[in-house]
Amino acid sequence: MDINHRIKEIAGTWGADFYGVADLSPAHDAILAQGGPVIAAYPRAISVGIVLLHTIVDQLPHRTNRAVAVNYRHHSYEVTNQRLDLFVSRVSSLLQREGWQALPVPASKRVDDERICAVFSHKLAAHLAGLGWIGKSCLLVTPEEGPRVRWATVLTDAPLPVTGKPMEERCGSCNQCVEICPVHAFTGEAFLASDPREKRFDAGKCDRYFAAMKKKDAEMAVCGLCLYVCPYGQKRNSEPYRRM
Length: 244
What we know:
This protein is of the alpha+beta class and 244 residues long. 39% of the residues lie in helices and 12% in strands. Helix 1 (3-13) packs antiparallel against helix 5 (66-97).
């Protein structure tokens, strides 16, 4: 069994719902600007996603209820992030044993407080792997589950076959994520790779909103309304699937 099939097999065993491989060369300059030359040196990215539990996401309009907020933070962040991090760690070790370079990117860790960003964009990898498009909420939107997916990435030089190409944006005239945002952080502009993030999203507004919530009660600091309201998540397919 070749390395690509072995990795996909691990993904299935670990309960991944989405798996893809991206060619990072089209986004080299953006990756370099965000993560620096070490990150930008990798030509491929393995993107893996886990669908959030809809029974929890569907309760987000009632997030002022402590039980709802705590459950969402625990399962949609802490538990799911841990599942993703364990997967990318295992895959990185496998690639290293096979003689390839591999760098696991944490599912959710900020490294730059000024720019409010991680060292690498998971949604960029998923987009380039053909798993979805960047929506007006700046989240990765999948056709099957909307933005109700959390992602992690392995950067590598292994010559894995690329799984797809970036999807065209399908948000159209929908602005539900823009309208529901409590702090009006989104402008409603569609994603263009050449545009700075600020044209679509004021990350500072979102960050200050969470900081204010954390100051009152850290466990109650949840929002996710843009994730909840997206029609692609609301109209998800009822049939079980695995995008592998």
